[in-house]
Amino acid sequence: MKFKYELSTRGYIKQRESFDIEFKQSFQFGDSLAKYLKTIVGMANNKGGEIIFGIKDSPRSPDGLSNDKFDNCDSLIINQFAQKYFSHEIEWGMEILEFDSKRFGRFYVSESEIKPIVCKATFSKILREGAIYYRYRGESKEIKYTELQRLLDSERQKEKNFWVKHIEKIGEVGPRHIHILDSLKGELHTTKGKILIDKDIASKLNFIKEGHFVEKNGAPALRLIGDITGMVDTEITPTSDELYPYRFGELKSEFKINQYELRAVLWKLNVKGNKKYHTSIKTGRTTATSKYSKKFISSVESLLQRYPNWLNETIIEYKTK
Is 131 among the domain residues? Predict the structure, then answer.
């Protein structure tokens, strides 16, 4: 993405901070990450927005980033923090912008489909358990009654509209011909039973709202958007050795660390249950083994290379948890 902000004749940015944009002079780690997430969540609870790093305040001068901290920021750390402190997934991203031979950092977030996103735990004096953060003009803070009422009314209306559309469709097609897709459990319920679908695929299925797609002789067609990763039956959890090739012992060899250190890493990054990095395979009626993805290997290796003290700090934190 190119730098899109308009400059005055004196070279200052004309745009002011608003409900969907915030400027920062520099990018920092530590407690600053919590402040950035508070802003991002506030924007997600409103209409979405962005944080631009590299903009000096008073006047708003596009000076650019003065170091490589933004480049060295691993999105895995921010995702892990967001999962720990907020109620559900945030659709966000980060990228580098360039302008006049200068580099700027950008965090961007989409409006959340499910509102409100709620803070799950207190962090320092920045985040408060149970708080709902909302982006107002130029600041992110706990939501006020008026905005909260409007947000909840909007969510209820969306739910009503959703049900109305379903009921209208059932009336058009007839209840005997309706099949229900449970994208949470990965089940397609039919009049003759149910078909199981890989959960990763079920979450990617989209219904075509515009246009008509038909097979031969006008038979209706269902278009599935997503990648099929394997077969599913009623007994086995879907998995693949290609997606999750590493076991616990193999991780120790890859990272060249001992068992205790590896447990500290897994705890710190909250890997268990994160489908990008971990899966659990049944080995018996009551036993299971964990397997880890190539993506997890590359993410941890990147952390160890970029932050030489990260492992030692993680072990100390793990001992005192």
Answer: yes
Taking a C-beta distance cutoff of 8 angstroms, is the pair 73, 29 a contact?
yes
Tell which residue, 185, 178, 186, 132, has the closest CA to residue 155: 132
Task: Answer whether residue 296 shows pLDDT above 90.
Answer: no
Please, which pLDDT band fits residue 220 given cuts at 50, 70 and 90?
very low
Q: What amino acid is encoded at 243 in this protein?
A: L
116: cis peptide before it, omega within 30°? yes
197 shares a domain with 131: no
Specify the DSSP class assigned to residue 69. Answer: T
Same domain, 70 and 135: yes
137 in any annotated domain: yes
**How many domains does the chain fold into?**
4
Are the beta carbons of 200 and 185 closer than 8 angstroms? no
State yes or no: pLDDT of 77 exceeds 70. yes
Question: What is the reported pLDDT for 85?
Answer: 94
- Dist CA 63 CA 55 (whole Å): 6
Q: What average pLDDT is seen over the chain?
A: 81
Q: Is residue 211 part of a domain?
A: yes
Clarify whether residues 108 and 158 are in a common domain.
no
| pLDDT tens readout for residues 161-194 | 888 887 777 777 677 666 666 655 556 666 666 5
Residue 293, domain member (yes or no): yes
| Same domain flag for 129 and 152 | no
- Block residue for tokens 């709620």: 118
Answer whether residue 233 shows pLDDT above 60: no
Give the H or E element holding residue 94. strand 92-99
Sort strands 92-99 and 61-62 into parallel, antiparallel or unpaired: unpaired
